[in-house]
# Entry
Amino acid sequence: MRYMMMHKLDENLPGAFNPSPEFMARMEGFMKEVAQAGILVAAEGLCPTVTDATRITVSGGTTTVTDGPFTETKELIAGFALVDVRSHEEAVQWGRRFVDVFAETIGEVEVDIRRVYEAPEAGQHG
# Structure
């Protein structure tokens, strides 16, 4: 089962999108461990919304295109890790460790753990 761990940060939080060397070292160590466990599918961090970010919204049949930065948004997806694990519980265990990297360096983070639809399952979730 594949799960995506998406970490959300406030762009205005000091260091959120300008990680310290300590944060980078801790994240690198964590990612190496996830890779060595054989569960890492992909992982990336995202640039702040001031850098080439665009939001496309459709509401009431009208499409609106807005370029960043998105200063009114407090919780932005700042990066993700996609893992292939045996269970939701295992994904949560790895997610807790993922959160610890942020808690120990940046201080505040929110991580969503979401199961990825796989082709045989499409249409089976309600």
Notes: Residues 2-116 form a domain with the Alpha-Beta Plaits fold (CATH 3.30.70.1060). The mean pLDDT is 89. The longest helix spans residues 21-36. The first strand starts at residue 2 and ends at 9.
